[in-house]
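In this supplementary section we document a worked example of the pipeline. Step one takes a protein sequence of length 77 as its only input; no multiple sequence alignment statistics are reported here. Step two produces a three-dimensional model, which step three serialises into structure tokens for compact storage. The input and output of this example are shown verbatim.
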Amino acid sequence: VVTPNGDNNNEMLYFKYLEYFGTNNLKVYDRWGQLVYNKENYSNDWIPNNISDGTYYYILTVANGDVFPGFMQVIQK
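The serialised model returned by step three reads:
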């Protein structure tokens, strides 16, 4: 769960140990499959305060070609 409300708890989408995987690409989609965020070399710095509450799906691809799909819940409070 990501809650970008300025209280410094769960403010951003964070991947533990991301710095050890080298280069990467992060794509985040809404429930309709629309791309809402895309970043080469993501560095755990996206605060999703410009999107609506809801479930979002991500695909993190790292340098060796491994793909890590998942989802997150955004709650704007």
